[in-house]
Q: What sequence folds into this?
């Protein structure tokens, strides 16, 4: 389940993601290297393969929630790409390399989520309308008129796509070219059948695409397993002591190594660990809500280094002063560049709780902070659904704070810093904190 804000998606996703993943996992078996590496989280790939459809919103996972973007954005991939051809081709290399990195350096849970992000782009490519670049009403029907219960690839033997990381990536890209050709041909065949409403004729052709996508998924998982073994390097571990903010108790601290692509989420106790890291000096940065801390450590190969971090803040906004730039100088972690300016993350609120939101603007700025609330909606929102929004007047340098009490219709909040400039150039800090009556 996910939480949604301000706008519903306009189409259902490729329906049988989890059945495609399950069919691929069935071909690996319990003793497969990847299944052993991921342990109890291997079956959860059927859930994590949806990750990329949760961009910019939260993902609910058993006993915790997290921002899906923590497994979708990283140095080298600082923006969201289309899941349709031709742009989806640009996702294979960065997400493949990031999944390999997670398998080598992060714990099983974090690695499984990164593999799930990669699976989504690969599987979306096999969807007939994605491969054939077909939009509109036909898109939704084409990728959901399929008998998901029939997605089984019994007898298929997964194959290794390459024996090195580079050759495996090249093998994946070649395999994806074949999948696009396969599904594009069938997508063009399906268009007139879908437009005629002939579901009986659509289902077996759409199933062919789902089955071929399952085979590609099995090849990919089989290949990832070949690179899941331990390597030499240093271990970096520690505990992040950052109390949870109200309503964000299920969200865990994020830990990154600044200037690198290494990142992970801590567990419920705040513990984190990286393995197989190259020796060298690292700036370890962690944050949870508005609290953040950074320490520098030197890591030696074959040794374990401990780095604990501690901070406290009641601010619900992550990276509230825009100083964290792990993603790179052009990006701002936890903020998204949009046409109006910089849009913050969606934050859940507690009904009946009073809050104060305030902005410390830079001197002589013309920027303003727009605020939007909405109720929490289920993940599957029908196409065309209008999500009611509540939008108060924007905060400005002349009126830079607002106190409100959350209701069921104000269960989620999102802020947008309206400006054409960099956010730190017009704003020093934004705070959203619980507020008590005087």
A:
């Amino acid at each position: 389940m996910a939480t949604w804000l301000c706008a519903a998606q306009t189409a259902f996703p490729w329906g049988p993601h989890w059945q495609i993943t399950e069919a691929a996992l069935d071909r690996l078996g319990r003793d497969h290297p990847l299944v052993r590496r991921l342990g109890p989280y291997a079956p959860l790939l059927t859930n994590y393969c949806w990750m990329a459809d949760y961009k910019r919103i939260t993902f609910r996972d058993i006993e915790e929630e997290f921002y899906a973007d923590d497994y979708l954005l990283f140095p080298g991939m600082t923006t969201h790409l289309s899941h349709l051809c031709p742009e989806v081709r640009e996702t294979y290399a960065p997400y493949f390399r990031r999944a390999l990195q997670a398998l080598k350096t992060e714990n099983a849970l974090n690695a499984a989520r990164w593999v799930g992000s990669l699976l989504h782009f690969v599987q979306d490519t096999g969807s007939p309308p994605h491969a054939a670049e077909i939009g509109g009403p036909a898109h939704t029907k084409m990728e959901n008129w399929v008998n998901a219960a029939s997605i089984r690839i019994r007898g298929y033997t997964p194959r290794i796509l390459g024996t090195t990381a580079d050759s495996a990536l090249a093998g994946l890209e070649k395999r994806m070219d074949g999948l696009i050709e396969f599904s594009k041909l069938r997508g063009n065949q399906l268009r007139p059948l879908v437009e005629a409403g002939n579901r009986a004729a659509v289902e077996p052709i759409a199933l062919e695409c789902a089955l071929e996508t399952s085979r590609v998924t099995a090849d990919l998982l089989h290949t990832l397993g070949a690179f899941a073994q331990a390597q030499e390097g240093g271990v970096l571990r520690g505990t992040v002591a950052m109390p949870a903010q109200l309503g964000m108790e299920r969200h865990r601290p994020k830990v990154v190594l600044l200037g690198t692509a290494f990142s992970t989420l801590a567990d419920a106790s705040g513990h984190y660990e990286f393995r197989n890291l190259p020796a060298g000096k690292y700036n370890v940065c962690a944050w949870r809500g508005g609290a953040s801390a950074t320490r520098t450590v030197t890591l030696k190969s074959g040794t374990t280094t401990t780095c604990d971090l501690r901070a406290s803040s009641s601010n619900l906004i992550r990276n509230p002063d825009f100083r964290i730039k792990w993603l790179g100088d052009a990006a701002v972690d936890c903020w998204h560049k949009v046409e109006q300016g910089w849009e913050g993350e969606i934050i859940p609120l507690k009904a009946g709780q009073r809050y104060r939101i305030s902005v410390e603007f830079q001197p002589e700025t013309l920027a303003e902070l727009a605020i939007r609330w909405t109720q929490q909606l289920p993940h599957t929102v029908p196409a065309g659904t209008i999500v009611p929004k509540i939008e108060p007047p924007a905060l400005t340098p002349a009126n830079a704070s607002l106190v409100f009490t959350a209701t069921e219709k104000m269960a989620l909040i999102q802020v947008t810093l309206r400006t054409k400039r960099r956010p730190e150039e017009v704003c020093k800090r934004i705070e959203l904190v619980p507020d008590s009556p005087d």
